[in-house]
Structures are given as C-alpha cells and as structure tokens.
Amino acid sequence: MKINKIRCANSLLAAACLAATTQAAVLTVAYYRLGEADPGAVAGQEAGETTVDSGGSASLTRVGGTAPVYSADTGVAGSTLAVQMAGGGFVKDTPVVTLTDNWGIEAWVLADSAEGISALVYNGNSGNSGMGLYKYGGGFIGLLGGLAFVGQGAAPINPGVWTHLAIVVANGETTLYVDGTPLATAGAPRAPAGTFNVGIRPDLGEAFQGRIDEVRVFSFDPDQFSTEDLLLTKVPPPTQPPTLVSGPTANPGNPVMAGDNVTLSVVAAGTPPLSYQWRKSGSAIAGATTSTLSFTPVTVGDAGEYSVVVTSPYGTATSPALNLAVLPPGSPGVVATAYYRLGENDPGAAAGQAAGLTTQDAEGDRHLNQVGTPPVYSSDTGVTGSTLSLAVEYGGYVLETPLITATDHWGLEAWVKTDYTEENHCLVYNGNSSNSGMGIYQLGDRYAGLAGGVAVVGGAPITPGVWTHLAIVVTGGTTTFYVNGVATGTGGRPNAPTSEGSGFFVGMKPDFGEPFFGRIDEVRAFTVVPGHFSAGDLLLSRVPPDALPPFVVSGPAASPGNPVLAGSTVTLRIVVGGTVPLEYQWRKGGVNLPGATADTLVLSNVTPADSGAYDVTVKNAYGSLTSDSLNLSVLPPGTSTVSTLAYYRLGEADEGAAAGNPSGDTTTDSAGLQNLTLAGWAPTYAAETGVTGSTLCLAVDGGGYRHESPLFEDADNWGVEAWVRSDTTSENRCIVYQGNSANSGMGIYQIGDRYQGLIGGVAFVGGTPIVAGQWVHLALVTENGVTTFYVNGTASGAPAGRPNPPTTAESAFSLGLKNDGVEMFSGRVDEVRVFRVRFPGQFAPADLLLTRVPPSAAPPSLTLSWTAQGVVITWTGGDLQQAEAVNGPWTPVAGATSPWTVTPAGAGRFFRAVVP
C-alpha cells in the first residue's frame, strides 16, 4: 500500500503530515515522540503519567520507581526533547500491533554504559511472543519472544552516542538495523500477546539507563519496506563540551575491603574525542587517562577522594568526588550509615517517659523526627548492652529523605517485639513503600521483608511478646531476609529509593499509615562491603555491634593543599572507623592542641608558625591509635605563588650569545636541564629587549626551538609566559605552546591582528590587539580548572576551561613555531617561562616576569646526608622536586619541608631545589 502525499491543514498536524509525506511505504501504527507531544513537557522536568501517541490513540502509562526526565539532548532532526531513563519507563497493557509479518519497531537510543541487560522497546511478551529492541552484553540486539537473539555481538554500544535501531520482520525474515544498516537476520516472531513497553519490562525488570527518543511502530505491504522509510535523519553532530552522564562509581561497590579488585568508572558524553584524567585529592594520577581506574588489588592507602576531569577540544567537565573507603583486612562486612539506639543516645531518656521530638543517630547527624502519638521509652529490651527500647503505638519516627539511595549492597536491621498478630504494620522502611526501597514489616502473623511495598522476601511466624532480631540485606543483586541471623528467603534487588514520598521511617509509614504496636530497639541502616557480608556482622547478641578498636580509613590530609600560603584557611581531616563513640585529639609536634577534638581541624589565617607535624590520636572503649604525621608547610607572606619548571632567557644563558649572531643548536633552560633544540631557520640574538635585566632577546622569522616531549603532563595549575614583539599583524602564528596544538595543552598565539591564549588548538582565551613593534608581556594560566589569559599582568577577556593534559601523540614544547614546523612567528621573543601554580586559588599575577629578570630569589642550595632512617635532603630556598631521570620530567615532592627524609626503595631518583 502506498500513501499519497497530503496537504497539512494546520500546524497541529505537522508531525503527522511529516510522517505521511516522507515515509511513503510504511503506515505508522504508533509514534511516541517522548516529549514534543506531551502536554507541558520541558527539559529537566519529570515525565508525566502518560506519554502521547502522535500517530494514534495508543498512549503509554508511566511505570517504575524513578520517573523518566525530559532532556534537550536528542539524536534526530526535528526533535527537541528526549527522555532520560533511570529506573522507570512507559507501558501499554496490550500490544500495539498483533501482526506476525510485515511490521517493525524503531527508536533512537543513547546508553549511559555498555553493561547490563535492559529493555529498550518491546511489543509482545518478552517471555514467548512478539519482538523488540534490547541492550544485552555490551551490545544492542533484536529479541524475538525473549528467546532468539538477532544481532548478538554485531552492534557494540558506544556509551553517550545516539544510535538509531530498528527491528523489522518482512516476508517471514526478521532483520536488525543499526543506523540504517542491516546487521543480522532471524526467523519471524510469534504473534505478539501481552504488552508494549518502552525503557522497562512491564514487571519493572530490566530498566534501561540512558536516553530514548522517537519510538515508532509501523506496518507495510509485502515487499514495500525500505530503510529510507526509517526515521534516520540525524542532527548534525554538535560541538558540545563534555558532560558527566554518571559516576564516578565503584565496582563492586563502596566501601571495599583491602585486597579486593576494585574499578572506578565514569560515563561522559560530548563531541569526541574525549580524554580523561583521574585525580586523587585533587592531584592528577599518572597514567590514569581512561574512563576507568582499576586497583588490583586495592590497599588501605588507596582510600580517598577520587574525581575525573574529562576534556575535549570543546571544553572540560569535572566529575563530583567519590570518597572511596577501604577497610583493613578482617574488618566487619558492613559499615553503619545510621544507628538508632532508641533511648541510650537521646538526652534525658528514661523508662516510662514519653520519647522526645527527635531520636538521635549514634553514628552521625541523621536524627529522626517524631510523628503520630509519641512513643514511650521502656526498660524492656532484647539485646545485651541495651538499657532502653521504644514502645510504639500509633506513632514513630521519620526522616524526610532516604538514608541510602543505592539499589545494591545495603541493609536494615532491628530488634522487635510485637504485641499482636493481626493486620500489616511497618517496622522499619527505607524508600517508598509503594514502589521502591525495602524494609521490615509485620504481615499479619508473620515478620517479612518487603521490597517496593509489593515483593515479600522471606519471613517467619510471630510469637507475641518475644524479642526477635530481623534484617533485610541486598548484596550482589539478591535480597535476603534474616530472622535471628538465619536467612529465611530471597528475592531480587529493590528499585532505588529515590521516588516521590521516599524517606526513612520507624514504627509507621510517612503518611501515618500501618502503625506498629509493640517494641523496637537497636535500628541500624548500613552499607555492605561487596563479597564480605555475613550474618555475624548483624547486631545479633550485643551492643555496640563490634568491639572494634579505631582504624584509619584515610588521612590525615590537608585541604586545599600542602604547602599553603600564609593567610589561607586550611582544613586537616582524618577518616577513622571503629566502634563508636570515637574520641579525637589533634596534636602538633606531639603536643595536644586545646579544643581540637573532632575529626577535622580548621586552621584559619595560617602563618609560618603553623607549619609543623600534625597528627591525631583516636580512641574508643576498645583501643587507641596515633595517625601518621602530616608535615604542613606554611610559606610566609610575599612568597611567590608560582614555581619555575623551565626558564628560557633566550640569550643570557646561551654560550657565546651576542647581539647580531645567529642562535645555536640549543637554547638553555636556566631553571634545569630541559634545553630546547633548534627547529627551522636559526633565529638571531638581538639587543632590543622588553624587560628590565634582560640584555638579549631572540628575533625569530622562519624558525625557533622545541623540546620533543612536553616539559610535564599536568592538566591543571600551571602556566606559560613570555615577552613578545610582533613585526606583523596578519596570519596565525605560534609564539609558545606546550602540548599538541591539535587537541591538548595550551599556549600563546598570534591570531591575525591579536595576541590570544589557545587551548588544544581550538579554544581561544582572552586577547589583545597587536601593536606592531611594541613589546608586551603575555601569560596563559590554568588554575583550579579555569584558564585565564593575561596581558601585562591584567586578565583579558572571558576565561575558559582547563586544557587536556599534554600527553597525546606528537606533543612537545615549542617556541616560535608549531611542533610540526608551521605557523612560524615573525618578531621578537624573550624571557619565556613555564611554571606551576603552587597554591591553586591564590595565583598572583604580580609573580609573573612583568618588570624584572630573573625572579628575585637567591639561588637554592641542596645537600644530602645519610642516617639510619634513610637519606636526609636539606635545602635552602625554593621547592623540592624529584625525577626518575636526570633530565626529568620533574615533579614537586608534595608536602616536602627541609629537612626531608627519604627511605631508599626501588629505582633511583634524582632531586633538585628550584626557586620560584
């Protein structure tokens, strides 16, 4: 059947007319635009209860624990909205078509990751009939009746990239199409019976994580289908900066046990190419430049805050920090998130007294608020070490948000004693008891676990008046209900407890429904260390849960860094595990600091007198420890905010240099050993300079100097500066560049009649008009993720993001021309310096070489001595740097203050002291 072209009567029919006039061989049965046709849809807003069928009347109903969200990120021309799926989707309780031949389904999809199995679009019963599109085992596939795969392994997923998928049965043969290309075939499906679903199975299983757009179901006459009839027209690839889709996340979870294999991962989107740099506590991790970071195995020393910087030619994105907790071997398999003793920690609590407006969290500050009839404290308890419990009747405690929002590796436990064996009563629940999260319930005459308010997990008969320990735990995707430490049944994992109405509640639901009648004690919410949980980790016979002495999880560490500049505010922090309560005492030089009795120590407006060795003693009822020392270094006011990595005077330090002579094969690095090699025509030394203290400069025209590799490989907190004088005001010319001017690093350029900063060869930063024959000082600095161009010490123009690390192929340091020998500068260059920003956030333009050469600092001195403890390095002036080779690359020794002791181990190392 062919559909003739028709004329649209008004704009409301435009979408339907478009389908009719451009897809001539197929008949649209249902068409879900997933946004454009939904009333009131706006990017960033949750999807409504239904999504509209633009091709007919087969609108879909929203299901699942987490509502899809409209997104402006779409993959097809003419679409302005898509939906982001994250645990929910849309379903129709009957199939859209019931044909066995000559029909198809298509959709645009973007997966957040390549892992897992999830439903994209399915018409029929994915157990035995119909067909649809699935994400399976790292690829996109077609699925027939839940049994036959079409294209398994043929369509690998590229996370963050829009892909057009279609599954079409024509003349008894089913074909999977990816971006209009047929990839695999199979036989015909059975007649569809069941449902039609988008983004999730009707039983709320296999939920898709990613974006879906422009879903269409169509039919056609035999031999009339063509790929030209699919909705293939793409939006031109946008030049979009990177965005973080998800992560960082830890696999198999967080916290972890020392000795486990752990992988951190992040999913980013944006116009490729994308590059990655993982950081720990804000410092780049050498070699960690992919979307994953693996520890095989992880150690206690690997604990800390991890983030990742994603860069492309179009911008930069920095992920949130993931605080990875690594427990020592032999630690319990659970870590408390919150712990409600229901009496012992509540101020003024006494048996027979009404409970207060809040009940205290013994692990932190997630205190609960009273609702309903006030409970009463009781001396009737069921666990050794507890002196009070809570007698509840039409009342309890609530937190308006969930304590835990994970889908896996967490649990709840409580001691309970019911007075009755009738009706359904809520004991403890985290989430929304309608469709997400999980908890502990009384279901008539049984205790049971409850997932999403509908799935019953395990259970045991109730004996009224008898204390019982109950727990529900999900780990490895399996939910288990425990009664007195014995597993009584299992189920699947719950939905994430993040939907509307979620919270944490004890004794009744947040809507005051299903109140419990009886006593509750020792309620605890906890995370599970994947692979290490056992029933022995529960509060089965005693309180506190574990007679565990203190142990250091991470720290002490200084924020924002070490060393710091006088006048800064510095926070020292340590993360410690062990049985609560924990007592802290910070020390400096082994002497207790008055009032410093928390896990953090804030030092405001620091001075050099605050420099020294800081540690902290921690104790509880089962032991004590003293942490490692943190050697905090506070530099005096006026200390330069930059330290020199390489400094090219372009004449004064070059042997035999004289005005009028051609320059030699190398030009000298006055700060170290990273000399540059001649490239192209030899420049000429000139006596005309632009800065006090300089007697020579370099006149370049057709040549310059380069270093075959970057001088260092940082993505942040460094800069480059130079004095320049251009002879022309035309064309694009390289003055100084560190990295690959195609996609990484940054430098200073002449862009026609302007001086500008350049990031990755594509992003311009600031700028100033060129006055031919006039000297000007230029600098480009990236600091805390922001790159700024300075002209004569003043910030120019709008800043930009940080560059990619200069580690890509063909990276180099070049002066006067690009590293491929083109875009040669014509003019004079002098006093080129590459430097590190020593105190991110405190860079001072006055520390640039604006009026003088060299920087006012006495030459440093460095000596070595040997002791029983190791090699002692003593130096005066400057910063200590180290390298594995005498010619670098050199990196700062974090936190080093003179004298500094090094214990020899492994390969040899070189040290130097460098003045700013």
Description of the structure:
This protein is an all-beta fold. Strand 49 (612-620) and strand 50 (623-626) form a beta hairpin. It is flat, with a radius of gyration of 33 Å. The N and C termini lie far apart (79 Å). The model is unreliable at 1-24 and 854-858 (pLDDT under 50).
Topology, pairings included?
Blueprint: H1 14-22, E1 26-32, E2 50-51, E3 60-64, E4 69-71, E5 82-86, E6 88-92, E7 103-111, E8 118-124, E9 131-136, E10 139-144, E11 148-150, E12 163-170, E13 173-178, E14 181-187, E15 195-198, E16 209-220, E17 243-251, E18 256-257, E19 262-269, E20 275-280, E21 283-284, E22 292-295, E23 304-312, E24 315-318, E25 322-324, E26 326-327, E27 334-340, E28 358-359, E29 368-372, E30 376-378, E31 389-393, E32 395-399, E33 410-418, E34 424-432, E35 436-443, E36 446-451, E37 455-461, E38 468-475, E39 478-483, E40 486-492, E41 503-506, E42 517-528, E43 551-559, E44 564-565, E45 570-577, E46 583-588, E47 591-592, E48 600-603, E49 612-620, E50 623-626, E51 630-632, E52 634-635, E53 642-648, E54 666-667, E55 676-680, E56 684-686, E57 697-701, E58 703-707, E59 718-726, E60 732-739, E61 746-751, E62 754-759, E63 763-769, E64 776-783, E65 786-791, E66 794-801, E67 812-815, E68 826-837, E69 861-867, E70 870-876, E71 879-883, E72 891-892, E73 900-902, E74 910-914
Parallel strand pairs: 18-26, 44-52
Antiparallel strand pairs: 1-16, 2-3, 3-6, 4-5, 5-16, 6-15, 7-12, 7-16, 8-9, 8-15, 9-10, 10-11, 12-13, 13-14, 17-19, 19-22, 20-21, 20-23, 23-24, 23-25, 27-42, 28-29, 29-32, 30-31, 31-42, 32-41, 33-38, 33-42, 34-35, 34-41, 35-36, 36-37, 38-39, 39-40, 43-45, 45-48, 46-47, 46-49, 49-50, 49-51, ...
